[in-house]
Write a structure and sequence with these properties.
Helix 1 (17-28) packs across helix 7 and helix 3 runs parallel beside helix 4. Strand 1 (8-12), helix 1 (17-28) and strand 2 (32-37) form a beta-alpha-beta unit. The radius of gyration is 17 Å and the shape is globular. It has 7 helices and 7 strands, in the order βαβαβαβαβαβααβ. 45% of the residues lie in helices and 14% in strands. It binds NADP nicotinamide-adenine-dinucleotide phosphate. NADP nicotinamide-adenine-dinucleotide phosphate (NAP) binds next to helix 1, helix 4 and helix 6.
Length: 238
């Protein structure tokens, strides 16, 4: 039996892409899962797939960038799940455009979602983990959080910020037996990377969401005395 069985997880942006693959990998380990996002139809479909794997699965529709929504929805998720052990801060958006051409509103929305959204959700989940003196938080940055690149300044700024926030939190709550893991994956096939024209669907050797999910599960399975502080997932042969 998996050591993760009966744990309870919240995955933001869990209806599709990397978040969905993580939710499915968690369900296969017997973890009860709450997935969140803004699109109810997508979340509903994914919840049915998760339930078919024999775990409790629920969804919650809210914008991670809206603190009032985050506060009320996280509370009801934790009430429904009966607790929380694992948070995967995965929801995120990206856009391509030159520094001057990108609208201020687009730049701000990327920061609001990727940085403030992660901060809001973590702020609401953290007290439950501190109370239990145990927990895991997985924060999704990107290789774009390690190097700046042309025409993607807002996304890079947001993912650099995620690393700073995540590492600071890690140093703050390690003493509470809370492991904070910052991931910096390279390009993985998903709606995001296909819509941005970063790769074609079904390309051989392209990283898949399931690869990302497997890394998260491996980190969670480490003995509690050990933690994956950060990890970069790269394709072997791009
Ligand atoms: N794919 C890659 O190559 C790659 C590489 C490195 C890092 N990442 C990061 O991995 C994460 C997942 O990316 P992905 O490739 O799976 O992207 P995706 O397929 O576009 O999925 C993004 C997810 O985030 C949710 N989301 C977006 N904005 C939201 C908001 N304001 N409130 C709540 N949920 C929101 C979306 O749901 P709704 O649209 O229904 O809200 C969706 O479930 C992102 O943080 C991304 O930056 C991806």
């Amino acid at each position: 039996m998996s050591i993760l069985k009966h744990k309870k997880a919240i995955i933001t942006g869990g209806g599709r892409g990397l978040g969905k693959a993580t939710a499915i990998a968690f369900a296969k380990e017997g973890i009860d899962v709450a997935i969140t996002g803004r699109t109810e139809s997508v979340l509903k479909e994914t919840v049915s797939e998760l339930e078919a794997l024999g775990v409790q699965a629920i969804y919650s529709v809210f914008d991670v960038g809206n603190y009032d929504e985050v506060k009320s929805h996280i509370k009801s998720i934790v009430d429904m799940l009966g607790g929380v052990d694992i948070l995967v801060n995965n929801a995120g958006i990206a856009a391509i455009g030159s520094f001057n051409e990108m609208e201020v509103s687009v730049w701000s929305e990327i920061i609001q979602t990727n940085v403030m959204g992660m901060y809001y959700v973590t702020k609401e989940v953290l007290p439950y983990l501190i109370d239990k003196n145990e927990g895991d938080i997985i924060n999704v940055s990107s290789t774009a959080g390690l190097n700046g690149n042309p025409n993607i300044s807002a996304y890079c700024a947001s993912k650099f910020a995620v690393i700073g926030m995540s590492e600071s939190l890690m140093k703050e709550v390690r003493k509470n037996n809370i492991r904070v893991n910052t991931l910096t994956p390279s390009t993985i096939e998903s709606d995001m990377t296909i819509e941005l024209g970063m790769l074609d669907k079904g390309s051989e050797n392209t990283l898949q969401p399931e690869d990302f999910a497997e890394l998260i599960v491996a980190g969670l399975k480490l003995p509690r005395r050990a933690m994956l502080k950060s990890a970069a997932l790269w394709s072997t042969n791009p």
